[in-house]
Amino acid sequence: MKVISTKLPGVVVLEPKAHGDHRGFFMESYNQQTLANAGIHHAFIQDNHSLSVEAGVLRGLHYQLEPKALTKLVRVVSGAVYDVVVDIRKGSPTFGEWVGVILSADNKRQILVPKGFAHGACTLVPNTQLLYKVDDYYSPEHDRGIAWDDPDLGIAWPISQPILSERDRQQPALAQAENNFVYGGDLS
């Protein structure tokens, strides 16, 4: 598995090795030992799966507050998304910065979203299915979000009129969002 660093420390893109022939392909989408050898140590305990039936569905930017913060390992099994990760750790040298990557069934890329980062994805094609592993359980009382179109973030989404949930329509800007992440240099 190839590990590609991004400008946000701890946020990495993973490229599994796919072995293909005339029948299709085989790949290890997750191998704890391979990731540990690459310095990635997370105990994932749950898999989540979402389907967006239309292109232009935007989910995010989401995160959970401490002590129920989540690390996510995100991939697409059908379709494609523009996936965005934002550093929301107060005092971080990259606070408020973001990275965006295309994850698709074709490129088989995955992205690791550590605790202290908000995550969002915009579907690029209909019937896109996103899978992600998490290292803790969903906690409604700790669930928070940031406005997808926060002008201070300046995210270059591939769409200007996304299809949003009611919840995501009402998210605050990062400056007003409840956030208890403080940069400490540790991304475990």
UniProtKB/TrEMBL annotation:
What assembly does the database describe for this protein? Answer: Homodimer.
Q: What pathway annotation does it carry?
A: Carbohydrate biosynthesis; dTDP-L-rhamnose biosynthesis
UniProt KW Zinc-finger keyword: no
Its job = Catalyzes the epimerization of the C3' and C5'positions of dTDP-6-deoxy-D-xylo-4-hexulose, forming dTDP-6-deoxy-L-lyxo-4-hexulose.
GO molecular function terms listed in the Swiss-Prot or TrEMBL record:
dTDP-4-dehydrorhamnose 3,5-epimerase activity
Query: What Pfam families does the annotation carry?
Result: dTDP_sugar_isom
Q: Which reaction does it catalyse?
A: dTDP-4-dehydro-6-deoxy-alpha-D-glucose = dTDP-4-dehydro-beta-L-rhamnose
Indicate what this protein is called per its UniProt record.
dTDP-4-dehydrorhamnose 3,5-epimerase
Q: What is its EC number?
A: 5.1.3.13
Identify the species of origin: Paenibacillus planticolens
Keyword line: Isomerase
Query: Its domain of life?
Result: Bacteria
What does the sequence similarity comment in the record state about its family? Answer: Belongs to the dTDP-4-dehydrorhamnose 3,5-epimerase family.
